[in-house]
UniProtKB/TrEMBL annotation, chain A:
This is Catalase-related peroxidase. Residues 11-326 form the Catalase core domain. It comes from Arsukibacterium ikkense. InterPro entries: Catalase, Catalase_core, Catalase_sf, Catalase_SrpA-type_pred. Its cofactor is heme. Heme binds at residue 304. One of its GO terms (cellular component) is cytoplasm. One of its GO terms (biological process) is response to hydrogen peroxide. Its EC number is 1.11.1.-. Residues 1-20 form the signal peptide. The lineage of its organism: Bacteria, Pseudomonadati, Pseudomonadota, Gammaproteobacteria, Chromatiales. Has an organic peroxide-dependent peroxidase activity. Keywords: Heme, Iron, Metal-binding, Oxidoreductase, Peroxidase, Signal. The active site is at 46. Belongs to the catalase family.
UniProtKB/TrEMBL annotation, chain B:
It comes from the Bacteria. This is Cytochrome B561. Keywords: Cell membrane, Electron transport, Heme, Iron, Membrane, Metal-binding, Transmembrane, Transmembrane helix, Transport. It comes from Arsukibacterium ikkense. Signal peptide: none annotated. The keyword Cell membrane applies. The chain crosses the membrane at residues 12-33, 39-60, 90-110, 142-164. One of its GO terms (biological process) is respiratory electron transport chain. It is a multi-pass membrane protein. The keyword Cell membrane applies. GO terms for molecular function: electron transfer activity; heme binding; metal ion binding. It is found in: Cell membrane.
Length: 326, 174
């Protein structure tokens, strides 16, 4: 009887520990991302990208929620980067499952803000160690991915998004999500959990081009002809929403605020532009924005720093000399 | 014990205060660059702010040292032993300055302003300089290992004086 009790008592504990993935370090994570053949001098993730520049035109709607100076009516310039997921700086644009936009605002020497956003609105998993297993599965092939999702019911919202997502024919026509939540902090110290998305203002049908650089060429031509505009839309959590689980969206109908327009008006190859040198670590935040405790968000800083350290050292040692990233 | 065979109270307080601070800084540094856990950001923020504090403390300490008479080293020590003892102490000061300076410059060139205990922010470059970041990032790591080695030597020497030579050197700092 006593033994039975013990078994009943311990079973859930063992159950949990069998489910909990082994903990990995930032170095192990970046090793996995870079794979067997690292590309010296390039990012270990989102290695292929193009530099863009432009400005954020704030309408002032968010100024009551955050002290960050860039939300006051007016414009703030940025350096940005449009990229695709993956470790290969020459990968074909149209094969990538995820497209990305990163921004760096330098409001002053003491107030800077980096944002790195992706096309899916949610993660498939809620912590970095399970994310590591997801990447292992992706690297192992379709059967492993199927097995991974079969054993991770938490991925349902991500899978529902992936099933209906139609890649467009342009970086300009995608929606880029913060995925992780942050707090806005206003002048009275009041805190509001938010997520945001950069919403496109044009629609572009999927392309039948096959060129490896199709998206880069398209956006270069588009920006040269006219500015490319996104609306920066914030979604406000209410008290019942969990801001620390990036695999779960908040219910539809939450208050949304359009804070202004992100306007792209310049572009250049990544090694020719200013964006390559930047680590778009989303935990570089200005006064008025704070990190939530979301385990995915909190894991990003150390991993980005490890990737940045590796590529910066390689670049110092001359890895990019003579490379033009064509 | 007379005054001259013991360090002044201010020097002893600064010595042990900084010892605790610097050893926790080293431990925090080595842990936080590996960790993907939610506390990483918290430790990192404290590491940078305390590093700035350590810089101020070592400056205060150096000025304080130059203004005070130090207890003499034991007469039994040979010439080379006193030379090594003195050189190692100046090297410690050098590293205690170089650690926070390299840490700050690494962040400066990466364009990351430093938040100091929510009180003020130290400026960062307006334009990122990845090569200088790389230089100071690697330097911060190498200097940290040099500092760990020197601290180990320093503790070893103090214990050697106390337990083997049975002289007054360790007591003069207690
Ligand atoms: C635990 C979770 C994550 C890890 C470990 C991770 C890791 C990385 C690493 C190592 C880099 C390269 C950094 C560099 O060398 O500059 C990177 C880049 C990037 N990541 Fe993540 N990431 C994570 C989650 C996310 C999420 C949730 C998003 C989107 C919301 C995201 C979007 C991006 C983007 C857009 C870039 C490229 C930024 C650029 O253009 O430089 N990542 N990530
Ligand atoms: C007495 C002062 C300091 C000590 C003893 C110290 C020690 C360390 C150590 C041991 C590491 C790990 C290095 C490695 O293994 O490569 C580290 C990393 C780091 N330190 Fe310091 N540090 C000090 C001051 C500072 C200051 C003042 C700053 C910035 C203002 C700073 C910023 C950093 C950063 C950002 C990292 C991690 C870099 C990365 O993730 O790539 N440190 N520190």
């Amino acid at each position: 009887m006593k033994a039975l009790y013990l078994v009943l008592l311990l079973a859930p504990a063992f159950g949990f520990s069998a489910d909990a993935p082994p903990k990995v370090s930032a170095q192990q994570f970046v090793d996995l991302q870079q794979g067997n053949s690292a590309f010296p001098g390039f990012r270990r993730a989102h290695a292929k990208g193009i530099c863009v520049s432009g400005e954020f035109r704030a309408n002032g709607q968010l100024a009551n929620y955050s002290r960050a100076s860039l939300f006051k009516p007016g414009s703030t310039p940025f350096i940005g980067r449009l990229s695709i997921a993956g470790n290969n700086p020459t990968a074909p644009d149209l094969k990538a499952p995820v497209r990305s936009l990163a921004l760096s605002f330098t409001s002053s020497r003491t107030e800077q803000w980096r944002l790195a956003m992706n096309t899916p609105p949610v993660m498939a998993v809620a912590d970095p160690h399970t994310f590591y297993q997801q990447i292992q599965a992706i690297q192992a092939g379709p059967a492993a991915v199927k097995q991974f999702f079969a054993t991770h019911p938490q991925s349902s919202e991500f899978l529902a998004w992936a099933a209906q997502y139609q890649p467009s024919g342009s970086f300009a026509a995608e929606t880029y999500h913060s995925i992780n939540a942050f707090y806005l902090v206003n002048a009275n110290g009041q805190q509001q959990a938010v997520r945001w998305a950069m919403q496109p203002t044009v629609a572009v049908a999927a392309t039948d081009l096959t060129d490896a650089d199709a998206l880069q060429q398209e956006i270069t031509t588009r920006i040269a002809a006219d500015q490319v505009v996104f609306d920066w839309v914030f979604t406000l959590a209410d008290a019942t929403d969990d801001e620390n689980n990036s695999s779960k969206a908040w219910p539809a109908g939450r208050q949304q605020i359009n804070a202004g327009q992100i306007v792209l008006n310049g572009s250049s190859a990544q090694l020719a532009g200013d964006c390559h040198a930047i680590n778009f670590d989303p935990l570089v935040l200005p006064t008025g924005i704070k990190a939530t405790a979301d385990p995915i968000l909190r894991a990003r800083s150390a991993a980005y720093a490890e990737s940045y350290r590796r590529r910066a050292k390689e670049q110092l040692q001359g890895a990019l000399e003579g490379s033009n990233n064509d | 014990m007379t005054n001259s065979d013991r360090f002044s109270l201010s020097m002893r307080l600064l010595h042990w205060g900084m010892a605790a601070l610097v050893i926790s800084m080293l431990a925090a540094g080595l842990l936080m660059i590996k960790s993907l856990e939610p506390w990483q950001l918290t430790i990192m923020t404290i590491h940078k702010a305390s590093g700035v504090l350590a810089f101020v403390l070592v400056a205060v300490r150096l000025i304080n040292r130059l203004r005070h008479q130090l207890p003499a080293l034991p007469n039994e020590l040979s010439h080379w032993q006193t030379t090594v003892a003195k050189a190692s102490h100046w090297l410690l000061y050098g590293l205690l300055f170089a650690m926070p300076v390299s840490g700050y410059l690494m962040q400066y060139f990466a364009g990351r302003p430093i938040e100091v205990f929510g009180w003020f922010r130290l400026p960062a470059a307006l334009q990122v300089d990845i090569q200088n970041y790389a230089l100071f990032r690697e330097l911060h790591g190498w200097l940290a290992f040099a500092l760990i080695g020197l601290i180990a030597l320093h503790i070893g020497a103090a214990l050697h004086h106390h337990f083997i030579r049975k002289d007054n050197v360790l007591k003069s700092m207690l």
